[in-house]
Amino acid sequence: MKCKYLDHQVCVKTSGEYRLCCISNEPTNRENVTTHTVDDWRNSATYQNAIATFENGLFPKACEKCKIQEEAGETSQRTRPRQYGPGISHLDLRFGSNCNLQCTMCYPGVSSSLAKEHQEMLKQGIDSPWGDEPFPNFDWYTDERGEYLATLPELREVYLTGGEPMMVKGLHKFLQKLDSSVEVRFNTNATIMNPNIYEELKRFETVNMCFSIDGIGKVNDYIRWGSNWQQVETNMLKWAEIVKYKSLGPTIQVLNLHHYETIIDWCKKHDFQFFDNLLMNPEYLNTKNAPDEIKQYCPEKFKYWVDQPADIIQQEAFKKWISIFDKQRGCSLKEYIPEVAKAYGIN
Description:
Elements: H1 4-8, E1 9-12, E2 18-19, H2 38-42, H3 45-55, H4 64-71, E3 90-94, E4 102-103, H5 112-123, H6 143-150, E5 157-161, H7 171-177, E6 183-188, H8 195-200, E7 207-211, H9 218-223, E8 224-225, H10 229-239, E9 245-248, E10 251-252, H11 260-270, E11 273-274, E12 277-278, H12 292-295, H13 303-306, H14 312-329, H15 333-336, H16 338-343
Parallel strand pairs: 1-3, 3-5, 5-6, 6-7, 7-9, 9-11, 10-12
Antiparallel strand pairs: 1-2, 4-8
Helix pairs in contact: 6-7
């Protein structure tokens, strides 16, 4: 058994830390792009042990999400029909944690805005779902590191996410270092329209943009706090004029499970592809812990997961944290997503 991501991709998270892939769950790795080369990472014990475990026909512990999906007969990230190789053909890069949104399901380690909100909550003596851990603002990109990665000899695709990749100060220079044959993939929240990046992307043979949109209208504005749907939609349609592949990539969770078909309908109307991602953490937003009123909207493809018994403790945690977020942000779940507020008895 093999994983093409391990064999042919290098993943670097917002802190600069190398990871097995974007959904792997291994402990913190000491190998970092600021101190280690790609070869150092691929020769590390973490990396080599994962390769050996797969070769023995087993899933590494860090790869539990793919294991669960495959055992349920579903397509996992590992088994998606995308061709990788030879050599290091793919990069998955998060140049830092700079982000202009405070997404409800996100994490301060990948969003500078959320980290700022977290720190403000602690200063005010308000409980935070992320405890009392301080979260630095990561920004590891330099032109030298960018050139090193952009000129890897067998590179065929670069995937850029964040944070928010459109906020990376060196993004334009990085793109200029890439050969026009390299496929450039973005995962962006669509709040920023950068004219220089727009023009630079026109020279590439293939540009693929997946927009991190978790709902249409108010649903998206609530989950991705700080966004404005009208502007987001305008920007997506503008980017769509120059990209070869355009898609929405919602994170399916308690707050938008009931809204699933609405997102698909928007994609059909505007000829966008649809690639969803089932949220696992935080658990209080995990769909398996949703009330039955929300679970009834579950599409068939997720029933293997959603039909598990809900954890009542996590439902109470949902009400606690949503109440805190609403007070901190000056908003109301009932105003933005009344269906979910009703299901939880939130008035």
